[in-house]
Design brief:
Elements (H helix, E strand, L loop, with lengths): L2 H8 L16 E5 L4 H12 L3 E6 L2 H11 L4 E4 H7 L2 E4 L6 H7 L8 E4 L4 E4 L2 E4 L7 H8 L4 E4 L6 H5 L8 E7 L2 H11 L5 E5 L6 H18 L11
Parallel strand pairs: 1-2, 1-4, 2-3, 4-5, 5-8, 9-10
Antiparallel strand pairs: 6-7, 8-9
Protein name: Pyrroline-5-carboxylate reductase catalytic N-terminal domain-containing protein
GO cellular component, one term: plasma membrane
GO molecular function: coenzyme F420 binding; cupric reductase (NADH) activity; ferric-chelate reductase (NADPH) activity; NADP binding; oxidoreductase activity, acting on NAD(P)H
Amino acid sequence: MTSQDAAASAKPAPKDPWELPDVSGLVVGVLGGTGDQGRGLAYRLARGGQQVIIGSRAAERAETAAAELGLGIRGLDNAGCARESDIVIVAVPWDGHAKTLTALRTELAGKLVVDCVNPLGFDKQGAYALVPEEGSAAQQAAALLPDSRVTAAFHHLSAVLLQDPEVTEIPTDVMVLGEDRADCETVQALAQRIPGMRGVFAGRLRNAHQVESLVANLISVNRRYKAHAGVRLTDI
């Protein structure tokens, strides 16, 4: 065996991209958890066995929503939700995105933040994508939260399906973007706590705009076909 052969054989085998970490013990907070998308994500993750905290500007609203959902979900104000969670999903309306994150910069420091906000506008022709100054909602979050680890995911999920207790599986893929591969794998694993979903790495945050803007197309699809379409990636 040559020295080159020996060096090649000493290299570790490529990691299986579907080998993901165990996230079952992590606490997940959902900012905007009283809205349709946040409430649906909180419900699905808790139903999958995750510890979940709903956050809202008013603790009373969060507590009411948590009590309605059950499943051991807790409700706190946004600051308390951020402090007590290991992973924080941002599911607030786009028009309150920057203000909410700026106010929680201290509480979110050191946290893994998952931004699922879609900057959209609506007019008589339907939904259309907005382009934030930073490039995307996720990039805005990264700029506003320099001490947090920001990823982007959960953009293409139907709030109707998420909240429907009769729906046992949601067969869709969740595209996950971020700067750190380990953080992305954590979010991928979190997505796969929901039956039917796969978490798929989809690039760095600079590619988040087209993922966020695709929601405008899905809204048009759903209106035309009276459906709750998601995204499924082929050949993986």
